[in-house]
Each structure stands twice: as structure tokens, then as C-alpha cells.
Amino acid sequence: MTWLVTGGAGYIGSHVVRALRGADLDVVVIDDLSTGRAEFVPDGVPLVRANLLDADAVRTTLDTYGVSGVIHIAGYKYAGESVRRPLHTYQQNVSAMVTLLDAMSDAGVDRIVFSSSAATYGTPDTAVVDETTATRPESPYGESKLIGEWLLRDIGVATGLRHTSLRYFNVVGSGPDGVFDVSPFNLFPKVFDMLVHGQTPRINGDDYPTPDGTCVRDYIHVEDVAAAHVAAAHRLESGLPIEPVYNLGSGSGTSVREIMTTMRAVTGVDFEPDIAPRRAGDPARIVAAGDLAARDLDWRMRHSLTDMVASAWSALPSRATDEAAP
């Protein structure tokens, strides 16, 4: 049984690859390395450098490695940037998924775990979302993820494809192999970069109706996310009943102020974040309930906030520790 991980050279994907190997499953990676890094792929795991829009490369990969299931993580993952680049977002997230699913159908591969997003919810009416919460995405990115879920639903009806989609918010932290988040748009790498370069991080608004006045969101460790993907793959493989969608969430959330305080303690860099005005459209609190995933995928928050920050900080290139002054 070989699982194909699309985007397996990326931050989340490479952690999923390690989790699959830890479960004694064979893995092959396809990644165009537009944001992934070849060195993030563990030794001994085949890496096919190709974009999913290359139908011939996808078909050849499925056939050559005898793939029996797919974990689909590849995509253009920047919600804010997707507003500026909608066509690129739909091409990479929707057209590429159509190509992948078509190739899977031709190869007789009938199992897929889709790495979706809580961006499908947009700004919900409730502070805690579950799988029954209405989906109202507010960016081309969120829309493209929801379309991906629709594609799976429709093909499942047409062909019997077994599938599930995992929705989650902010993935942080690192595993022991030093794979780190390379995104210039995510909170942890942005703050770390500012600390390394002697700049002061900022909080956008501290007057929200939350315990400390700052926004509350879900932050979940990348290894916990990877474990859920593997559990979903096992469930598909075993033929057990599986939900079409699972939220991976804490149910409680973490405030931006709590993150900054933990970063100060973990890094040893003494700073007090600047307070900037609120950003338009930022809800006070959005977190996801993970009850269904806990029931079926052994989902739980295995890492504390300190674990998340410490693992992410220690995984940065060595110059981060060298250049940051307490």
C-alpha cells in the first residue's frame, strides 16, 4: 500500500510524509517545489518534481509507484494573496485537483484525504464552528477549497470514491527534523523574523470582547495535523465509515496576546508588542470544535502552546538563535 502525498515537500506535507512513514506506510511525493523544499522530503522517499496540472506526470507517478491512496495537500494556500491572484488560485487549487482526480480514476485509485481549510466558513455567526456550520468563504482561496470538497462529493456519488476532507485554521510548530514554516504570511514566521531582525511585532487591535482584548483563534501543532491525516488514511484503507468533513480544532482557541507572551518567554527576546488598529473584517473569536475527529480520527491537542512556540523557534535556521539578542 503506497500513499501519494501531493505537496509533500512543503511544511505540512513533509510532516504528513514523516507520519506515514512512522506508521510503516510506503510514500511517494509529488511537488513542483514552488514553495516546498526538496530537503524537507526524508531520505528514501521518492520525490517527483511536477505540478499537478501536468496530467502525464501525475498518471506516470500513480502507475510507477503502484499508488493506492492519495493525501492531497498541494495548493496555493494564501487567503489574502488569493484576492489579488484569483485565477492563479483557482488554477492551482481547482484545475489541478480535477487533473488529479481524473488521473486517479484512470488508475483505479479510489481513496483520498483532502487537506481543506476552515477558510470555507468565512466569518461565521458563531464563535465555535462545527461541521454543520454554514460555509460562506470570503476569499478565492476559501472558495477553491470548498469547490474541492464539492468535487469529492460529486465524484464519490458517481464512482464510489472514498474520501474525506480535513478543515483547520492555523498550523504551527515543527517536528524533530527541523522542518519549519516558510510562509511569509503566517503569524509565527512573521513574528520570528521580526525578532531576529530587532523589530517589534504588533497586535492588530486589543479592544475585542475577549478575555485579554485580542483576537482568539485556533492554533494547532503540525504533528497533530499530520497524525489526523494518517488516521484518516487508515480509516479509508480499512473500509470503516468516514465522514465527508472533519474539523481539526481546539474548541477553545488561543489569543494573539497569549502567543506573544509565550514567544517572549520561549525565545528570551524581551519585547512588548506594539498595538495597531483593528484590521477590517477580523472577528473577535473563531475556533473549531473537533468532536467528530476525536471520535473517528483519535484527534486531540497533544502539544501545548509552549510546545508549539518552542518547536517552531528551534527549527529555524541556526542564524535565528545566533542573531536574536535577549
Commentary on this structure:
- This protein has 326 residues and is α/β, with parallel strands linked by helices.
- It folds into two domains: 2-171 and 219-247, NAD(P)-binding Rossmann-like Domain (Rossmann fold, 3-Layer(aba) Sandwich), CATH 3.40.50.720; 173-217 and 250-323, UDP-galactose 4-epimerase, domain 1.
- 40% of the residues lie in helices and 17% in strands.
- The chain has helices spanning 11-22, 55-64, 79-84, 86-107, 140-159, 187-196, 222-238, 256-267, 291-297, 305-315, 319-323; strands at residues 2-6, 26-31, 47-49, 67-72, 111-115, 128-129, 162-167, 170-172, 202-204, 216-217, 219-221, 245-247, 254-255, 274-276, 285-288.
- It has a seven-stranded parallel β-sheet with strand order 3-2-1-4-5-7-12, with helices on both faces. Strands 6-15-10-13 form a four-stranded mixed β-sheet. It has a two-stranded parallel ribbon with strand order 8-11.
- Its cofactor is NAD(+).
